[in-house]
Amino acid sequence: MDITVLGGGNGSYAAAADLSEKGHKVRLWRRNDKAFKPVLEKQAISVSDSKGRRDIHLHLATSNLKEAVTGTKLIVIPLPAFAQQSLAKQLASVLEDDQVIFLPPGTFGSYVMAQTLVEEGCQSNVIFAETGTLPYLARKHDEQTISLSGRATRLPTGVFPSERSEYAFEILQEAFPAIEPIQDALDGALMNAGPIIHPPLIIMNAGPIQHFDKWDIHDEGTQQAVRSVHTSLDNERMKIREALGYNSPHFPLADHYNEEGDEWMYGDGAHEELVDGEDWYEPLDLKTHRYMTEDIACGLAFLVSLGEWLNIEVPTAAGLLALASSITGEDFRKTGRTMENLKLHDISKEQLKDLLTKGSTQYEVQ
């Protein structure tokens, strides 16, 4: 299948390499020409995983967005949530009817990007899908080498508009067989593990993060007190899901850590594999790292605003969001990805469900 992958981060390189090795014709686009130069010249990505190290050749590596997108069925965008709006503006003039845009994960980016495309005058009838995590545990070693330490075994995914789900899943599952269909894009957004796992890890480890040159939040930083906060925060996520009519499985984060319980998104034993390596032993700037600018400013802010919109108390999420705002000096409840800033705070649950089904933006508050 002809597939476009957009971006130059860990997830984009991992997707481009893995999908290419599986036989798909992958075009990889990145806007930073200078950083992209090694891949552009080689037309390949170097991969390091359990099979060893090797070069995987791409169908095309290009810095021309139209060249990357034209004629492909699937567009994979593993970029941070805060980049979705600006990328949608660039895509507005080059998208084609019936292309599927996959956001792994999305943080309700399906709606953000669809809304932006409408504002930009895009006439193409595209379909969005989003899931709860990246399909890969991956870290770039340099601008042409990616380390793959794990692959997702279950990817709960929702489509926007959900009435196009059957068509979208036929395409998505050809590329990612681990995808499991769920109700809609908001269902998928509320599977996002990032806003649950990362806020407690960086806020409760703020001292050692700022003291040491490097600190592994997933190993030394994951102690029982942190796990307890994870559980409280995840319970609030699941309470919101149930209030919106999304049933189990909810993929509770506890299944990622515990040997008992259902298989989580990366399969059994994934946490042990994650901490065995040193890919996540990294310097972490609390103001600029994507755990703050994506998982908190977008994901956690959205969760808190949903809770307030539903009149559900979410004290753990709200407390973590307030602490993050104090650390950064920015009030994420006001500036983050929220129901208010998405202009959805004055619609009903019934209107929201209709929007998710049909992809309509008629309920936006002007």
Task: Describe what this molecule looks like in 3D.
This protein has 366 residues and is α/β, with parallel strands linked by helices. It folds into two domains: 2-189, 3-Layer(aba) Sandwich (Rossmann fold), CATH 3.40.50.720; 194-358, N-(1-d-carboxylethyl)-l-norvaline Dehydrogenase, domain 2 (Orthogonal Bundle), CATH 1.10.1040. It has 16 helices and twelve strands. It has helices spanning 10-21, 33-42, 65-69, 84-91, 109-119, 165-175, 185-189, 194-203, 206-211, 224-243, 254-257, 270-276, 290-309, 315-328, 332-335, 349-358; strands spanning 2-6, 25-29, 44-49, 52-57, 60-62, 74-76, 100-103, 127-131, 136-142, 145-151, 155-160, 179-181. The strands form two sheets. It has an eight-stranded mixed sheet, with helices on both faces. A four-stranded mixed sheet has the order 4-3-10-9. Helix 4 (84-91) crosses helix 5 (109-119) and helix 8 packs antiparallel against helix 10. The protein is globular. The model has no long low-confidence stretch (mean pLDDT 93).
